[in-house]
Specification:
single chain, 392 residues, alpha+beta, three-stranded antiparallel beta sheet, 9 helices, 14% strand, SUMF_dom, Sulfatase-modifying factor 2
Length: 392
């Protein structure tokens, strides 16, 4: 997704490697955060919402999530309770990965993997539930809030945000100041009308913290893919090998300046906007947002001591495509590695919980006791039978 580009000068062009490109992006972002943007100097602290003199002469409004009051958290959690349902995946073995030698993400080759029984959320965590969590954990701040910025698709920025709050990044992306989970496209946006959309701009640590608060955890990569393939082993998509329209929220159009909204959604979509993607009842496994797992991202053909400390994300997002011509191809085996503090408008998560009660085997002593008890009962019945026979 974050593809490096060429740095051009007036006389020639210089090809730079990925590390240099990342360093340049970080310098630009640091400059933005230090207040070198013009409008940061013109801020008026006394008046709250700022009115900037722009061509449109429209104010930048500071939206926020609903004000916390006693009982509101319980009311919201009750109203959106169906989006927290978990689905049981009984343990077993399956073929993990993709049979595509051209893939460079480590999904090839296919290999057989075993997993134990577990529960996983039927839907990605939605904005309403994350808001309820934040209302209960008042002093928690997300990674994007602490560092002051996050990645957003440039096409969806307002003119004011693009001009005064953003720094251009990789093709189609911008580092936006004050973009976080409840301001998805910058300070002039809110969650209004998006309470059932998956929460975004959350890092791996943010996701893990949410899961732990609810007595859950992040799924491992094999667990996530096992759930996606439930009922359709060795298939490309959760429903089979053939792509079906209106089954997932992906990019349709030319990247990065056109999204023709053929699936009915410009950015993220409600987690139940499409029917369940497999027979087990999981929604939004592929498309909409990438989802964090607890597994390290291991690259092929790289020695263990040279591996980057990255975490695996699964599923693809609304900026990816079926064919892979736009960003990455969405499919069950697709994966992406990112740093733990990475945040973006197309990254979310769902929770999991182990279910060892479905994998427990009878204790050996109990089995022996049962066998002995059954043997005694058999001998008693046999003796009683012979006594009745002698009496006759």
């Amino acid at each position: 997704m974050l593809n490096t580009s060429f740095l051009a000068s007036s006389s020639n062009s210089l090809k730079i490697n990925q590390n240099d490109a990342i360093a340049l992006e970080e310098l630009s972002i640091q400059s933005m955060l230090k207040g070198e943007i013009k409008m940061a100097i013109a801020s008026n602290r006394k008046r709250g919402p700022r009115l900037y003199k722009t061509e449109t002469k429209e104010p930048i409004q500071n939206f926020s999530h609903p004000i916390f009051k006693p009982g509101l958290v319980d009311e919201i959690r009750y109203s959106y309770r169906k989006y927290r349902e978990m689905v049981l995946a009984r343990g077993g073995s399956f073929w993990m990965g993709t049979n595509d030698p051209g893939s460079s993400t480590g999904e090839y080759p296919m290999r057989q993997v075993a997993v134990k029984s577990f529960y996983m959320d039927a839907n990605p965590v939605i904005n309403a539930d994350y808001w309820a969590f934040r209302a209960q954990k008042k002093f928690v701040r997300s990674e994007a809030e602490r560092k002051g910025w996050s990645w957003v698709v440039d096409l969806f920025l307002s003119n004011n945000t693009r001009k005064f709050y953003s720094v251009a990044g990789p093709v189609g992306w911008a580092a936006v100041k004050k973009a976080h989970w409840d301001a998805p496209e910058g300070p002039d946006t809110s969650l209004e009308g998006r309470w059932k959309h998956p929460v975004s701009h959350v890092s791996w640590s943010d996701a893990r913290q949410y899961c732990q608060f609810h007595g859950k955890r992040l799924p491992t990569e094999p667990e996530w893919e096992y759930a996606a393939r439930a009922g359709v082993t060795n298939r490309a998509y959760p429903w089979g090998d053939n792509w079906e329209r209106q089954r997932a929220n992906v990019w349709q159009g030319k990247w990065p300046h056109e999204n023709n909204k053929a699936d009915g959604h410009f950015m993220t979509s409600p987690v139940d906007a499409f029917r369940a993607q497999n027979l087990v009842g999981f929604y939004d496994l592929i498309g909409n947002v990438w989802e964090w797992t607890s597994s390290a991202y291991v690259e092929r053909m790289v020695q263990p001591h040279l591996q980057s400390k990255l975490v695996t994300l699964k599923g693809g997002s609304y900026v990816d495509s079926v064919s892979g011509r736009v960003n990455m191809a969405v499919r069950c085996g697709q994966r992406m590695g990112r740093k733990q503090d990475y945040t973006a408008a197309n990254v979310g998560f769902r929770c999991a919980r182990s279910a060892p009660e479905f994998d427990q085997k009878p204790d050996a002593r109990q089995e022996a006791s049962d066998t002995l008890s059954n043997g005694r009962k058999y001998r008693k019945r046999k003796i009683a039978f012979h006594r009745r026979k002698e009496e006759l």
